[in-house]
Structure formats: C-alpha cells, structure tokens
Amino acid sequence: MTSNISPNAVIASGVEIGDNCSIGPFTIIHKGSRIGANTTIGSFCEIGVESSLANNQEAVIGDNCLIRSHTTIYNGTKIEKGFITGHNVVIRENSTIGQNVRIGTFSDIQGDCKIGNYSRLHSSVFIGKFSEVGEFVWIFPYVVLTNDPCPPSKNLIGSTIQDFAVIATMSTLLPGTVIGFGSLIGANSLVQQNVPIEVLALGSPARIIKPVNQILRKIDGFPGYPWFQNYRDGYPEELSIIYANLRLKYSGSA
Known about the structure:
Elements: E1 4-5, E2 10-11, E3 16-17, E4 22-23, E5 28-29, E6 33-35, E7 40-41, E8 46-49, E9 59-61, E10 66-67, E11 72-74, E12 77-79, E13 84-85, E14 90-91, E15 96-97, E16 102-103, E17 108-109, E18 114-115, E19 120-121, E20 126-127, E21 132-133, E22 138-139, E23 144-145, E24 160-161, E25 166-167, E26 172-173, E27 178-179, E28 184-185, E29 190-191, E30 199-202, E31 207-211, H1 239-253
C-alpha cells in the first residue's frame, strides 16, 4: 500500500513513512523521523524539529496515529501507536508518549516528559519539563504542571501524576508534587504538597476532603469514583482488573 503525501509537503531524505499514511499540505518532516503505518498528519505540521537538547536526532511516531494541523513535534521524542492530537499541539524534545494517548488543542508538552498509556489531556494543558503522567490519567483544560521552585532557575523538578488520577480544570501543580493513584484534584486547586492515593483534594491551597469513593453522582446518588465505573469509551475491556492490580501496587507503597 502506498501513502498519500501532499505535493506541498516537505519530506527530508531518509525519512521513513509507513504504508497507508497521509501527509497534509505544507507539513515539514525533518531527517531522522519515522512515521508508522496508517498514520495521518494534517497540514502545516512540523515533525522532528532539531533541538540541541535532544538525546538523539529521531522523532518516532507509531502506527494508527492522528496528528492534526499546526502540531509541532521535536526530535528525541517517541510516540506509541494510537496517538491523537487536537490542533496546534507542541511536544518538545525527549518526551515519551505511550499507546492511545490523546492531547487536546493548544496543549504544550515541554521536554523530557513522560505520558503513560491511555491518558487523556484536554485543550490548553501545560506539562512542564521533567513531568511524569501515569497511565489512564485525565487532565482537563487549563491545568498547569509547574517545575521551577525558585523561578527563574535551571533547577527544575517536574510533578508526577500517578495512574488513574484526575486533575480538574484550571488547577496548578507546584514543582515536585505527586498526585496519588486514583485521586481527584478539584477545579481551580493549587497543589502545594503531595496528595495520597484515592482521595479528593481541592482548594487553594489544596486540602484533602474525603476518599474518592465517597463522591456521589448528583444525577442518581451512585458512586462517581473510580471514574471508569461510569466511563469506558475507548478503554480496554479489562480496565477493572488493571485498576485492581495497580491499586495493590500503590497501596503497598503508600
């Protein structure tokens, strides 16, 4: 099978493009880039942007990805299969992104970040350099993960969001904070200290309110968390088993 590459796209020599790909008009793909099969890259994107901070000169994008227009991905970045972006997304050097991750429009992933499988970031999310986002995480619009405890400086410390956690809209995580497995950070919260597993924390500064399993849905009074009890679109069928196994892991280290 052949790929559909716009005559207006600029593809450097040596770039590897898999079968059945689509490359839109005015997109630039730099040398050292590898694009997996069945991947669509929209117009005005730039893949494999050179950076002196990159650990290597490759940008790797897996199979079955959808990268929408005006997205920029730097070299040294590795993206697994099933990745989807909105428009105008930036992903800086040395970032690793797992399978089936979604990143919304105008989000900015700074360098040396890690995002785990099936995590979903909505629009206008800022992930500071050296941050780590686990698997099955939800991050809603205008969330900011900071990384400089004494700005401006070069002593950067990224935040960590553990698996299945949810960060609600317009919240800010201060440098080095850890959000525990399965926890919920309420909207407009300022997280200054670590949050343990499976709790609701909110406010400025954020304070622990109660366990997440005590949060009831207003529509029917049933428990709202763990969240996958109410929402499973696009997730593996064995999600309950995955959660239970990870819960044992994090409970043992709590």
